[in-house]
Amino acid sequence: MCPVETLQALYDGGGGASLADYMAAIEDSPNGGGLFIWEMVDEAIARTDKGGELDPSGTRSCDGIVGPHHELEASYFAARDIFSPVQVENAPAASVRKMGRVTLQNKFHDTDLNQCRFVRELVKCPSPTDRTWFKPVVNSAQLPAPSAAPGGTAMLDLKLPGSPGDFDYVKLAAYGPDDILLREWSWPMCERASYMPVTAAKDKLSVNEAGGQIKVKAGELSFTFDAATARLIEARRDNTILPLRNGPDIAWAASTGSAIPQQLRDGVARADEGKVKQGGENSKPAKNDATTIRLATAPLGTSGAQVVKHSDRIEIFQNNARGFNRLSWNIFADGTLSLDYSYKLTGTFDSFGISFDSDEPAMKSVTWLGQAPNPVWKNRLEGGTFGFWSKDYADTEPGRVWNYPYFKGCHWDTVWFR
Hints:
Elements: E1 7-8, H1 19-28, E2 37-38, E3 45-47, E4 53-55, H2 74-83, E5 86-88, H3 93-99, E6 101-106, E7 117-124, E8 137-143, E9 153-157, E10 169-175, E11 181-188, E12 205-210, E13 213-218, E14 221-226, E15 232-237, E16 240-241, E17 245-253, E18 268-271, E19 276-278, E20 293-297, E21 306-309, E22 313-321, E23 324-332, E24 337-343, E25 351-357, E26 365-372, E27 385-392, E28 416-417
Parallel strand pairs: 1-2
Antiparallel strand pairs: 3-4, 5-6, 6-9, 7-8, 7-10, 10-11, 12-13, 13-14, 14-15, 15-16, 17-20, 17-25, 18-19, 18-20, 21-22, 22-23, 23-24, 26-27, 26-28
């Protein structure tokens, strides 16, 4: 069995969407013969009447896993990883850190793994609090290739140093007999807690409550919160206003109609473009069924925001208000601001989360430690590796501009970013 046009590679994600699930089913089936993805290349006409602009006719022909000039889209990397004849069996980061080895699967039909080449890199990255960036330090080594017949498995020793926590992550690359890269894997070497700030004396923190606001100062950083809602109103570094404010608010979208969820019906929601919708059974987004809706106002809790002074931080929290079960801010002496929250939605949603206001024109770039470089979808997590990444801001539209990786989108397994 070899299904045709199993997936359509529309924009930058469709070709890899659920591809891992399809391949697992095909490999487990005695009749599985493969599948077809529509298609290889985005097709576009160079419009002479528009200065050579590539025109894919809307969504009609931007359905390849590479661009019109073979630009590598996110689904290309997902397909490469999923189709790789060398795979690593389930290897959680904690196990890799502890054992220092992984189990390889040989999915070649006629090649032993000892014909391949394996390269391990240990990488030390800058800290998110460093004032100046340095180039990541890489400790690279070629590993002896183990022997495993087609269909077999073999253990690969990553030869980690005595203190793997001295590095941020370990990266493994597999090359075929022709020395072409087959796939890469990486695992964090440090626990997330190790990236939390080491705070100084608490006298560097100050808090003032007046005029319906709570103001916290931590060195050159200051944060202003609404005393009634615990929303962040403003963040400043000295006289510079940081481009994140007015949140968090619960946000959601549902293709079946984004009515306000039952437990939030006594609130007021607004669509992303700013049009306001009142709560009620017939509430729908202002633009279309896929519009993201944001809860702009909702009933306050029985009490306003509470302030607690801990030995190493100041906490501002509120319970059972504005749709949140709990909302908690923690401000540390070094200026680190952390947010913890919980809420419950009942129903079927395309997406849900929280939202803030942001000055998009002020965005220049982002640097982070996590899975990347391409944005992911819930059913297409393959194609990236855990690492240190950076990209400049760009407001690009998939299927119109082929400047990969795209700046906007969802990323996962993120430890920190700035």
